[in-house]
Specification:
By secondary structure, the protein is mainly β. It has 3 domains: 31-130, Immunoglobulin-like (Sandwich), CATH 2.60.40; 134-166 and 340-435, 7 Propeller (Methylamine Dehydrogenase, Chain H), CATH 2.130.10; 175-298, Lipocalin (Beta Barrel), CATH 2.40.128.630. The chain is built from 1 helix and 34 strands. The protein has one helix at residues 2-27; strands spanning 33-38, 44-46, 49-72, 77-98, 106-115, 120-130, 136-143, 148-154, 159-165, 171-175, 180-184, 191-195, 201-205, 216-220, 227-231, 235-239, 246-251, 257-264, 267-274, 279-286, 292-298, 301-309, 312-319, 322-329, 335-341, 348-353, 356-361, 364-369, 374-380, 386-390, 395-400, 403-407, 414-419, 426-431.
Length: 435
C-alpha cells in the first residue's frame, strides 16, 4: 500500500511539473522586441573606429541577454559584444570597435539579438565600411648568401640590417594581410615564414631535396589567394601565409614544372615547362580547389601576370631574348601579342593600375598601357634587378645594385634614392593591408 502511495505521489509530481513547465513555455512564447536606435541604416564606418550601438529591448517577462555582431559581406565577424540584461525593458548601449586595418571596404551588417531564454529576436542595420588608409610599413631587400641577408627599409626610408637566415634563396613573397615575409629555399633551404613585426620565424617547411637541383621552382603570392609554391616534383601547393597550413595541392601537367603562377578571378594560372623537351604550356585550374581545367601551348617564359578584368589577362615575359607582351583570355581560347621588345628581355614587371604595368628591361624602365598599346620609357640608365610598386605613396621602387631608386611611375621623375647596407637581389613592399 505504501509503495502504491509513493507511485501515486511520483506520478502527481511529474504531471504537476509538466503542467508548470508547459505554462512557462506558453508564457514565454512571445519573443522580445528590439529597436535599434543607433546607428541607422546607411551609416558609414571608417577603419579604425569605435561606434556606439544603442538599442531598446523589452519582453513580457524578462530580457535575459543582448548580443551584437558586425558581419562583412563574407559573413565574417568584424566585431562583437553582448551581455546580460535581466529586466523586462532596458536601453542597452555598447561600443563596438573595428580596429583591424586589414578589413577591406564593403557593405557590413549589424545584427542585434535579444533573448528571453526561450525565444530570440533579431534586428538588422546595414552600413558601409571604408578600409583604413593604405600605409607603407616597410620595404624588404634580400640578397647575399651564407647567411641570407634581409634588410628592412621603414616608411621614412631608414635602412636597418633586419635579420639573417641560414639558408639559400629561391624566391620571396610578402603578405600584407598576414604580415608575413615568406622566403623559399633553393637546393637546400626550407620555406621560411617570418613575422614582419618581430623578425621571428612564424613557421617553416623543411627542404626534402636530396640532389643538387633546385627544390622550389617558383614562389608567388597573388593578393587574393594563398602563397603559391611550385616544386620541381610538379606539385603546386597553396600555403596560408599566416600559419603554413595547406589550402590545396595540385600538380603540373605530366613531365612539367610550374615556373610562375597566379590567381586571377576564380582561376589559378600557371606557366609550365617540360625541362627535357623545352616546351611550355599555360595551364589553368580552379583557384578554390586546384582542380585542373585545361591548358594550351605557349612560347613565352612568363615573368609577370596582370589581370585586365572581364576574363582577360596580360602576360609579360621573354622569347628568344626578346621581351614580349601577350594578352590572353582566362579560358585560354584566344590571345594576341600587342608588343615585342627586340633584344630586350623583361627582367621584372609590376602593375600600377589595371592595364598599366611598368617593366624593367636591361637598361631602362618602360610603362606599358594596354588601352592604347603604349610603351613609354620613363627612365634610362637604370639596370634594375627587381622592381615593386608602393601603392600607398604612388611610387615605383627599382633596385639597381645597392641602391633603391624611387621614381614617379608616370613621369619617371626621380624622387630619391635609398642606399642599402649590403648587396640585394630582390625587393618587396609591405603595407598595413593588401592594396
Amino acid at each position: 500500500m505504501a509503495k502504491a502511495r509513493d507511485q501515486q505521489r511520483a506520478l502527481l509530481f511529474a504531471c504537476t511539473a509538466g503542467i508548470l513547465l508547459s505554462c512557462r513555455k506558453d508564457g514565454d512564447s512571445t519573443p522580445p522586441l528590439v529597436t535599434i536606435i543607433a546607428p541607422v541604416d546607411g551609416a558609414m564606418l571608417q577603419v579604425p573606429q569605435s561606434f556606439l550601438v544603442r538599442v531598446q529591448v523589452q519582453d513580457d517577462h524578462l530580457v535575459e541577454s543582448v548580443g551584437f555582431t558586425l558581419l562583412n559581406a563574407d559573413h565574417l565577424a568584424i566585431a562583437s559584444d553582448g551581455g546580460q540584461v535581466g529586466e523586462p525593458s532596458a536601453l542597452v548601449e555598447r561600443y563596438l570597435s573595428v580596429e583591424d586595418e586589414r578589413w577591406p571596404s564593403g557593405p557590413v551588417t549589424l545584427i542585434v539579438r535579444a533573448s528571453d531564454g526561450t525565444t530570440e529576436t533579431r534586428a538588422y542595420v546595414h552600413m558601409q565600411l571604408t578600409a583604413a588608409p593604405l600605409r607603407l610599413k616597410a620595404v624588404f631587400a634580400i640578397g647575399g648568401s651564407g647567411p641570407l641577408q634581409v634588410q628592412r627599409i621603414d616608411s621614412t626610408y631608414q635602412v636597418t640590417q633586419w635579420t639573417f637566415l641560414a639558408q639559400d634563396f629561391g624566391g620571396m613573397a610578402l603578405s600584407s594581410n598576414d604580415q608575413r615575409l615568406v622566403i623559399a629555399g633553393s637546393v637546400s633551404g626550407p620555406i621560411t615564414s617570418v613575422d614582419v613585426n618581430t623578425a621571428g620565424v612564424a613557421w617553416q617547411i623543411a627542404n626534402t631535396n636530396n640532389d643538387p637541383q633546385s627544390w622550389i621552382t617558383a614562389l608567388d603570392h597573388p593578393r587574393n589567394g594563398p602563397m603559391l609554391t611550385s616544386f620541381r616534383s610538379g606539385a603546386i601547393t597553396g600555403y596560408h601565409a599566416a600559419t603554413g597550413s595547406v589550402a590545396f595541392t595540385t600538380y603540373a601537367m605530366p613531365d612539367h614544372e610550374s615556373r610562375r603562377a597566379t590567381i586571377i578571378e576564380d582561376q589559378l594560372i600557371s606557366d609550365q615547362i617540360d625541362p627535357n623537351a623545352g616546351t611550355r604550356r599555360l595551364v589553368r585550374y580552379q583557384a578554390s580547389s586546384g582542380a585542373l581545367i585545361g591548358s594550351t601551348g605557349s612560347d613565352l617564359t612568363v615573368r609577370y601576370f596582370s589581370s585586365l578584368g572581364d576574363g582577360w589577362m596580360l602576360l609579360f615575359g621573354n622569347r628568344s631574348g626578346d621581351g614580349v607582351v601577350q594578352a590572353h583570355r582566362l579560358d585560354l581560347s584566344a590571345n594576341w601579342e600587342p608588343r615585342v621588345f627586340p633584344g630586350e628581355p623583361v627582367v621584372d614587371a609590376v602593375g600600377t593600375s589595371t592595364g598599366v604595368v611598368v617593366m624593367a628591361l636591361p637598361d631602362r624602365l618602360v610603362r606599358y598601357t594596354y588601352a592604347d598599346n603604349g610603351a613609354v620609357t620613363i627612365a634610362t640608365g637604370i639596370a634594375a634587378s627587381s622592381i615593386c610598386y608602393d601603392a600607398a605613396n604612388g611610387e615605383l621602387l627599382a633596385l639597381d645594385g645597392q641602391t633603391i631608386v624611387r621614381l614617379d611611375p608616370t613621369t619617371g621623375t626621380t624622387l630619391g634614392g635609398i642606399s642599402l647596407l649590403g648587396s640585394a637581389n630582390h625587393i618587396g613592399a609591405l603595407f598595413n593591408r593588401e592594396p
